[in-house]
Amino acid sequence: MAINEKMIEEILNKYPAKVKRNRKKHIVIRDSARENQEIEANTRTIPGIVTNRGCAFAGCKGVVLGPLKDMVHIVHGPIGCAYYSWLTRRNKAKTDDPKKNFLAYCVSTDMQESDIVFGGEKKLARMIDEVVEIFKPNAITISATCPVGLIGDDIQAVAKAARAKHGLNITAYSCEGYKGVSQSAGHHIANNGLMENIVGEGDWEEPPSKYTINILGEYNIGGDSWEVERVLNEIGYEVQVVMTGNGSYEKLKNAHVAQLNLVQCHRSINYIADMLEKKYGTPWLKVNFIGIRATIESLRNMALYFGDEALIKRTEEVIEKELAEIEPQLEPYKKICSGKTAFCFVGGSRGHHYQGLYEELGITTVLAGYEFAHRDDYEGRDVLPHIKSDADSKNIPDLHVTPDERRYRLKIPVERMEELQKKIPLSNYKGMIKDMMDGSIVVDDLNHYETEEFIRILKPDIFSSGIKDKYIPQKMGIPTKQLHNYDYSGPYAGFRGAINFARDVAMGFATPTWNFIVPPWKDKPLLEGSIEQC
Ligand code: CFN
Ligand code: HCA
């Protein structure tokens, strides 16, 4: 069923007037006749409304720092924050030396009441000593949870003293959960810290090969970056570091030598892309390795950037070979998926990225949104590579990055960059709204009440989001697909990833399970129904 303004009004009528006014600004019906549709985003969730957002700690330790594998990441705080962020995101990592992969550990100061009353700095310092002695990591991070800021533990001072004592890169991140309005604030804190303390620490002056790149905003969920790297290596690229999936301190400290930075998830790491450009002269290119068409476009844009005929030719050869491998495998899945509809609601970039892959399977996205993205993720932005600074930068001061005089060199002359800006199609920069079909719904910070209402009206065939809301549609008899952790599957990126995704989604449609579920409203009175009857 197509949705109209009146229906949205009816959904919102259940809210108090002030809440209704607020939520209205976060919902848009796509209308291509209106060129620049605006949406409110990156604002505080209304207290009392249940949404799927995380906190600054989740964004800093969980998202950006956590995947760095040869470092021990200490969580300073009560145990819950450490325990519940213990590899649930499925960011995978491998090391040649198995003793240098610490991701499977959950390391926390486990603050107790006495630490809250008398302070936890000494406990933290002792823990760092133990970590150095037991694990001998290449570096250590310390992330603060809410109480640390409330009681005023000075984790920066503890880190500084430990750095001097152990001669190791030990850095602290004041990412207390209450900072900002979502995990987005935590990304920014982590990015600033990595740029200030790690990137550029290495002594390399030159890239190890002609086509050395970094991949930013790729977290190796379910092995995504391994699939992307497989293809890039086959073409002839050398990946210096992935930030931060399967990334390491050892590689990160020489990230400054790359000739080009690819940006997969713009939301979580645009700050670093921008800072690397300012400090070292490395341009960045927005890519998207989710979906076959998007992967091909990204590979072609990269080849265009380097502009070398042999590389362009090799890129086409690899694309052809990969397509020959996957296209026949995709066919049976397409038959099952064709004509279906989806909701696609994920954190800050996948709500957009996965729509292309759905489309390639014949699935139309009828509702999409982000948990915590900013307006530019919805509405698009200027051309590459320069970005506008945006809303949540207000709370956390940026590093005022200046060019590193010793190492700054323009990796590509300005004139060529201008030429590229004309050549490289900017489909990845136009934001989610413009990519959606007329009549579809875009919702920012979707909440559980609205989820149920939109499902009732639009009856999607599949609901893709995360662990916090997947049970609502399942109880309504609708298959779900977690697009955060991939439900124990993956990789979903690149060419082979598309096959895995198609298989998993087709499996969701083909299983008879959903027919056995009776939605609660069919045999039980609804809560609001019973209240009204009282
Ligand atoms: S891996 Fe990324 S792709 S980093 Fe970000 S905005 Fe989260 S953890 Mo969950 S799946 Fe999600 Fe994105 Fe970038 Fe992941 S859509 S919410 S903070 N995200
Ligand atoms: C986070 C991490 C998360 C949560 C996923 C989910 C992830 O926001 O702190 O809600 O299912 O991808 O692991 O986004």
Explained architecture:
- The protein is α/β, with parallel strands linked by helices.
- Helix content is 44%, strand content 12%.
- The protein has helices at 5-12, 17-24, 56-65, 79-83, 113-118, 121-135, 146-151, 155-166, 183-197, 224-235, 249-252, 266-280, 292-306, 309-337, 350-360, 375-379, 414-423, 431-435, 448-458, 471-475, 494-510, 520-523, 527-533, and strands at residues 27-29, 71-76, 107-108, 139-144, 169-173, 212-218, 238-244, 260-263, 284-286, 341-346, 364-370, 441-443, 462-465, 480-482.
- β10, α15 (350-360) and β11 form a beta-alpha-beta unit.
- α3 (56-65) packs across α9 (183-197) and α14 runs parallel beside α21.
- It is globular.
- Residues 385-395 have low confidence and may be disordered.
- 3-hydroxy-3-carboxy-adipic acid (HCA) binds next to α3.
What labels would you give this structure?
534 residues, binds FE(7)-MO-S(9)-N cluster, 4-stranded parallel β-sheet, alpha/beta, binds 3-hydroxy-3-carboxy-adipic acid
Low-confidence stretches are 385-395
Outline = globular
Ligands and ions found? FE(7)-MO-S(9)-N cluster, 3-hydroxy-3-carboxy-adipic acid
Helix percentage range: 40-55%
How do the strands of the widest beta sheet line up side by side?
Answer: 1-12-11-10-13-14
Report the average pLDDT across residues: 92
Number of helices: 23
Strand content: 5-15%
